[in-house]
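Quick entry between incubations.
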Amino acid sequence: MEETTHKILVIIPAYNEEETIGGVIEDVKKEMPGADIVVVNDGSTDATPLIVREFAREKGVTLVSHPYNMGIGATMQTGFRYAGRKGYEIAVQVDADGQHPAIEIKKLVGPILRKEADAVVGSRFLGFGEYRPSWPRGVAIWIFSTVVSKIAGKTFTDPTSGFRAFAGDVIRFFSRLYPDDYPEVEALVLLHKKGFAIMEVPVRMAGRKGGRSSITGTRGAYYMVKVLLAIFVDLLKKIDTTEENP
Amino acid sequence: MQTVQVISIIIALALFSAIIDLIRRGLLKERYSVLWLASIFAIMALSVWKGLLDRIAQMVGVAYPPSLLFLVAFLFVLVILLHFSVVISIFTERNKILTQEVSLLKARLEEREKKGEGRSEGK
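Done. Structure below.
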């Protein structure tokens, strides 16, 4: 395991976000100068990897590219595997579309540094900002919020938020087991099952600055059914994450 | 309830619990279970609700309604098989890409090792 002087790794999963990825990297570097960045390029067909490669000339920014598109779940897991191998103590997920302002990262990392939680989720609904999701999405978020809160025994207002930070043990856990499809909600259930301490903190998020969302319309209903099914089965699952090559 | 209905329900339930257990043990991924679960749901609905079975059989022109159960099951199996062909095609493409990447990485590695040897010999 390589030693690293930096404890914090910001994982930016990216798929065709050429309009915003440069700005996001600069934002993170500005607000979190001590943290390293890894951009996991999930088979982008646009200029995303070219843009990131320019930043990767400097220390502290790394580009990892998948040979083909695998989805956000596998992409984040690649980030976790990278973080695990390099010995990072904290991993932060920041989306490449500009919705996660880097200035809010400190709020996610703080509780982990103070050993108050193993995983911190940034919620849009805890009082900060005026985010009002579109109707179908709002219903989906409400349903997931109810289900996850019920399971975990505490309130989760924004289980679909990808703006999260994780401690080392969680990094190692996710390196071996992370949901492939629409992972955000399921990941919380898995963490709860494994006994990790999860916390929500209020954050302000920005609207999508460029590109298109990957979850729209009718796909949304299919998405919900899949996630609810996965959660139902996760509750029954045996979680055995021993593996030879994490 | 007719015997064939009971048999049908038992098989559907057995299949359902097998699928849930496979997912639970990590041997079956959720995304490949969706079609199976949809089939089971359809068969269960037609097995339990005789009225529906009779009505659809009449609409389609099947004289003996329980035959419809076989037809529906068969059609679902066809769809599942087709889905598998698609999945295999996707995997074939990905496998090809991975093989190509590995080959190129090996070549790059050999280049580096060559250079490394050259440099130390030149000293």
